[in-house]
């Protein structure tokens, strides 16, 4: 692959052409281009529906032509005629695109050497969009990926980007930056960002993408894990690390973009154990990861609970918050990641790899693999006892305007505030029920008393909490006027219960509701 150039003049031309040609997420997803159905087929790894839809769109409206050409060339991987590409990139031209390292031209035919696509997002600073270059995917290549493949913005990348805490900090680290997507997101709220990767090609893409999208303040460093930042600390560390569990047997591809070369979940364990030493006091690390659960008799494979063990290994006290979002048995895990590498089911290769994955899990007695989000915070005061929180939240996410990053930040703030709130303080506090909390009651037919009362969170992780009559009444009375103690006293009278016993029952539940943002201080 030719090297990518970051010549400012050529990049300015490319930016201008991509804008003029309306190479945007809105245009591609709209009925003007390939629309929702072909978009879904693409997501499943099939490009024919999108190509047909683009052809029809151009027949209907020739103005769509330039964006269709760019999509066919850079996303679907079809060679395009020189005249069409010149029309889609009128100021850069084919020659300029060759000099940037984006295409190869032979006679009248132009082929993409990289994937380039629009990417749109909303974060605390508002709506924005970029164009992101990465290696061509299996769709365009028509086969398995190279082992040094540089990933574009995948589902996990977008998930982590959506989780990032929207807080202004001085310094941030993106470990395993790939095409640079997390570093670019973090640069929106960090004065300086260090982005590392073991792959020089990945750093080329990250540099190209930052320059193309005029994102400043990112320093790129080559090296493994924390080697390039030895002795340095950061306010915010983010990483979508190469966490995929891969059998260490000959013939199994070792994809750099997803596999850190270690056994089982050791790569994630190693990042979690080392990251504390690279956080400033109050600094937060946000990672994605996999963790293994072992069968009876195995030691140390405790699923999501292992994350706290790994953090403790580092010797730096850390608050640990794990949100487990998915669980897979070994077979489902093997299928997911063999397909991800571009090997199709039904082929000899697929079966050989499937054997290798199942053999590895069996040999190490792994019965389940969890996936989720890890948030680690170095307490501001070294004397604070670490708080460990492990949640299994496998359902859908809430719908609200603030986004998950804001929700995470509110939760961390609540944990911090509750550290110095004893029960007397909590009883004296005046809490308010969050606007997105609703209550469901279920009754046996003909019965006036509910058998189940559930509090439901509309935003955040859309948590549901089984509540009893007393907790539900307490939450309902939290309007910011009455103290928790006054509400507990009134409930004691109403229910004929002892105040102290009622407080002892309700206060831990109130703490939990404050932590999760269902009650606000
Ligand atoms: C799953 S990709 C994440 C890319 C990007 N940050 C994102 O969120 O889409 C993992 C990245 O880690 C890099 N990587 C693999 N092994 C590494 C190591 N030992 N140290 C640092 N980075 C590594 C890969 O090259 C790849 O770019």
**How does CATH name the architecture of the largest domain?**
3-Layer(aba) Sandwich
**Based on DSSP secondary structure assignment, what is the total number of beta strands?**
18
Provide the spatial order of strands within the biggest beta sheet: 8-7-6-9-10-12-11-13
CATH fold call of the largest domain:
Rossmann fold
Q: Give a list of the ligands.
A: S-adenosylmethionine
Give a description of the structure.
This protein has 521 residues and is an alpha/beta fold. The protein has 3 domains: 8-113, no CATH class; 153-396, Rossmann fold; 418-520, Arc Repressor Mutant, subunit A. The protein is built from 20 helices and 18 strands. The protein has helices spanning 8-20, 25-29, 35-43, 48-60, 65-74, 82-88, 93-100, 138-141, 155-163, 181-186, 200-212, 266-275, 306-313, 330-340, 348-363, 403-419, 423-428, 469-477, 484-495, 499-515, and strands at 80-81, 103-106, 109-112, 115-123, 126-134, 169-175, 190-197, 218-222, 234-239, 279-294, 319-328, 366-377, 388-392, 432-433, 437-443, 450-457, 464-467, 519-520. An 8-stranded mixed sheet has the order 8-7-6-9-10-12-11-13, sandwiched between helices. Strands 1-3-2 form a 3-stranded antiparallel sheet. α3 (35-43) runs antiparallel to α4 (48-60), α12 (266-275) packs across α13 and α18 (469-477) crosses α19. It starts with 7 loop residues before the first helix and ends with a strand. The relative contact order is 0.07. Residues 151, 157, 160, 176-178, 181-182, 196-199, 202, 224-225, 240-242, 256-258, 260 line the site of S-adenosylmethionine.
